[in-house]
Amino acid sequence: MSASKIVIDGISKGFGDLAVVDDVSFEVADGEFVAIVGPSGCGKSTMLNIIAGFEKADRGAILIDGKRRNGPNRNGIMISQHGSVFPWMTVLQNMMFALSATRHSNPVERAHRYIEMVGLAGFEQAYPHELSGGMLKRVEIARALVVKPEILYMDEPFSALDALMSLKMQTELRRILDEERHTVLLITHDVEEAIYLADRILVLSPRPTTIQTWFEVGMPHPRKLSDPRAQELREAILRELGL
Amino acid sequence: MGEALRTIDGKLARIVPPVLLIGSLIAVWWIVVANSESPIFPTPGQVATGAWALAEDGTLWQHIEASLFRVEMGFGVAFLVAVPLGLWMGWVTGAYYTLNPLFQMLRPISPIAWIPVAILWFGVGDFSPIFLIFISSVFPMMVQTTVGVRTIDRRYLRAAANFGVSRWVLFTRVVIPAVLPEIIVGMRIGLGVAWLVVVAAEMIALNTGLGYLIMDSRNAGNRYDLVIASMILIGVIGLLLDGATRLLEKLDMVKWRYVR
Q: For residues B43 and B29, is the Cβ–Cβ distance under 8 A?
């Protein structure tokens, strides 16, 4: 792996007297998939929002490709729990919206290719309220990938889905990531999801959040959670989380 | 087959009970008036006959047209003023802080209180009622639009920022569509108030309109059959106007707000 794609350099953030993120530093290599697990309410989302550029840190800096990040951009797309597919646009219109600020020679063809990639061919003209939760998540992923971001920020992307659909989407995401190499930062409270998907897992402490420890997963894909190594890792992470 | 039957059942369930209710109210009215032998208060039959006579000589349509014209003008101008102002106030915090106190102060003043001012400024022509309708429907639409902008879900604004779209695209394809359902609610409220006010305004002056018809019928020989006929017409037209505005809720672009 090459030089660090993302450098998080001592970021801190508080709301009034409440310290939420306390001096967090870590690096993510190009093409690496890093999962971040931590107790609920520990400031995970705040941290990711700072890294993605939606919120400002009180102290510290974010470097993307060695350049200081100021505000969000197309190079890193956020996929969050409740999703942000525009309900007043059809699937295709959502894709075209994402492409509207880019300069692709054939955006329509490109939009169709990504709709197909997530298995939604035939639903181009459907409105989000006509789709199931799982399908909506696919639209969200397709819309993120269509602009060719180098980084994906995922904030509990599948936690609003039922358990089966969530598993299915994890497998899908893994398949897509094998096709297109992305650097991914995933926030989750689902330890198994982290083990299934990530190269490295950071465990956060309760608020104010710091990095308590981290684990290298080091198993080839496709992974089986029944694998003894995965089970061992799961135990270790849960122990860190105090369970 | 079963599906079709159920749809028909659903429609019947929505039509039959209100028709029965209104029908029985008319029946009770008829029986009570017939038994009391009131010299002034009309039976439903007399109301229908009176209205029919006016419809036949064409004056009824003139009154309806006059009222509708004033509502169209007043409401139309109010819409054109309220929506851009509401969007601006919702989007620009400075505009909100500056203008909101003034509008919140003007809003609770009853349109009736404006009548003397309207007569002073615009005389007793069409302008006065149009002004009154404007003043009464502009605030609800503006407030609704402002609230709509200020309550746009942050995740949509963030997504737009994430994809790096221009401010123009952000405004036309995210902000306006997100607020559209609120604007339609504002239009329903505004149009309802406008129709309420046109009748009140016409009672004061002028010589056309349904409000004028009510006052004129009473003054010109206690024609209560025409008073009641006008009242019913006002109610029916109000219902139709609201129904027409509600059709906007069926647009594909705003349907998302009314499902789930």
A: yes
A79 beta partners: A154
ipTM of model: 0.88
pTM over 0.90: no
* Calpha distance A160→A241 (Å, rounded): 22
Contact A147 B259 (CB under 8 A): no
Per-residue pLDDT of chain B (260 residues; tens, 9 = 90+): 566 667 777 788 888 999 999 999 999 999 998 888 887 888 898 899 988 988 888 889 999 999 999 999 999 999 999 999 999 999 999 999 999 999 999 989 988 899 889 889 988 888 889 999 999 999 999 999 999 999 999 999 999 999 999 999 999 999 999 999 999 999 999 999 999 998 888 877 678 899 889 988 888 878 888 899 999 999 999 999 999 999 998 888 888 888 75
Q: Say whether residue B260 is in contact with chain A using an 8 A CB cutoff.
A: yes
Task: Find the DSSP H helices in chain A.
Answer: 44-52, 91-99, 107-117, 133-145, 163-179, 191-197, 228-240
Q: How many Å separate Cα B178 from the centre of its chain? A: 23
Looking at the complex, report in whole angstroms how far the Cα of residue B258 sits from the nearest Cα belonging to chain A: 10
CA angle A222, A132, A183 (to 5 degrees): 40
Name the residue of chain A whose CA is nearest to B159's CA.
Answer: A84
Taking CA–CA distances from A129, the nearest residue in chain B reads B256
Q: Residue A200: what residue type?
A: R
Q: Are B179 and B144 in contact (CB under 8 A)?
A: no
Torsion sign, CA atoms B219, B221, B226, B227: positive
Instruction: Tell me how many degrees the CA angle B207-B210-B211 measures, rounded to the nearest 5.
Output: 75
Mode of pairing for the β-strands spanning A183-188 and A33-37: parallel
Q: How far is Cα B134 from Cα B70, in angstroms, rounded to an integer?
A: 10
The owner of tokens 């010109």 is B220
In chain B, what is the straight-line distance between the N-terminal and C-terminal CA atoms, in Å?
Answer: 26
B239: contact with A, CB 8 A cutoff:
no
Helices then strands, each counted (H, E), chain A: 7, 10
